[in-house]
Amino acid sequence: xxxxxxxxxxxxxxxxxxxxxxxxxxxxxxxxxxxxxxxxxxxxxxxxxxxxxxxxxxxxxxxxxxxxxxxxxxxxxxxxxxxxxxxxxxxxxxxxxxxxxxxxxxxxxxxxxxxxxxxxxxxxxxxxxxxxxxxxxxxxxxxxxxxxxxxxxxxxxxxxxxxxxxxxxxxxxxxxxxxxxxxxxxxxxxxxxxxxxxxxxxxxxxxxxxxxxxxxxxxxxxxxxxxxxxxxxxxxxxxxxxxxxxxxxxxxxxxxxxxxxxxxxxxxxxxxxxxxxxxxxxxxxxxxxxxxxxxxxxxxxxxxxxxxxxxxxxxxxxxxxxxxxxxxxxxxxxxxxxxxxxxxxxxxxxxxxxxxxxxxxxxxxxxxxxxxxxxxxxxxxxxxxxxxxxxxxxxxxxxxxxxxxxxxxxxxxxxxxxxxxxxxxxxxxxxxxxxxxxxxxxxxxxxxxxxxxxxxxxxxxxxxxxxxxxxxxxxxxxxxxxxxxxxxxxxx
Length: 492
Description:
Blueprint: E1 5-9, H1 13-22, E2 36-42, E3 45-51, H2 53-57, H3 66-72, E4 77-80, H4 83-97, E5 104-106, E6 111-115, H5 126-139, E7 145-149, H6 152-161, H7 183-191, H8 197-201, H9 205-212, H10 214-224, E8 241-250, H11 253-273, E9 276-287, E10 292-303, H12 306-309, H13 314-319, E11 326-338, H14 346-350, H15 354-366, E12 372-376, E13 386-390, E14 409-415, E15 426-429, E16 432-445, E17 461-468, E18 473-478, E19 485-490
Parallel strand pairs: 2-4
Antiparallel strand pairs: 1-6, 1-7, 2-3, 5-6, 8-11, 9-10, 9-11, 12-13, 14-19, 15-16, 16-17, 17-18, 18-19
Helix pairs in contact: 6-10, 9-10
């Protein structure tokens, strides 16, 4: 069967992606007509990464400094580029392209390749298929160049340098850059007057290989079809799901847990083969009345140990309504994370897993985002010496190191009725009178002037550890610039 390759090139993929998301409501008409550009930071300046047609009409181009671009076009709108989101969007377009053929692959970061051999007749021929592609891409707000040829190289050349994009052109009339050459090779050929592919075809192959290297000859052969070039299809992400059909309906909790245990063993074996761990699982219990009950489990850490995961399902299974009986069970992993095999050492073997299981049990009741842990931060300011993160998506980071003792309770500064530069013998705080028994200090802390913080605009603080005769151990500070005493914490 004759091989036919379709090349789809999206010259403005990043900007089209952002403008499609913006084109909602009243902005739908104006989003694509206003100058817009995506920027990235390069060589200590923001430069244009991608731009739409309206920005190009103003004389802007890629690599241009953002400040210069705004001088040419004051109405230019911009936002930072996101290459990760662009690649995700291109992958989504590849899955959409499988409506035309099952063999679809990525071509760099802005193109697709389709092997349409044997499938063009389903759309009325190649011309009908290509017209359908262009129409659908235009309706989606995407700028796409589409062409078909016998080889991958020829199809790429037609989309990037062709005029008709109909696949009937002779690529020998295209520039040498259409052979996907390195910029330095293209420049060297231009300097010698070899500007068209036909100019290269007229020269001896040995001379080209000796002067410009074997890559030039390889690209030429690939484009002309004398050298085969494979298309790597986009592989589907592995699906982690198992199912069990029961000969007789069940309804007891122990029976459902026994079935879940069998499903978990099969599922964890699949995860182990792929070096993956489950973060979210969904157990679907189908009843004989065609109803279904779902038990969702969110894990505090990636796991593939069936013995640890099974007890975490007990609460959800106990609350599920079996109705007149359950005749089918399905267990699926809806979120996975990489979990490579690691060498078992004394440190890893002695590490308890009970904390992660506890976080999982509590997280499924109140939400994993509501369970947080404190981590040390690189700052001498008391309020910034720690940070709060979600416990399920973080790990402890090193020991807590402090040259001075810090209170176990820290709160916003509260004024006290006192005067003088040393801790008062008697003071009033929270409508209570205290007597100072012992005071340790001072510890002077200067503000971080490079960070805006209204609470520290008063300047220096002299901290004292005050032990009162009433039994309270307080953390007081004095502000020399604006004389006053405050309580910010309490020791255990």
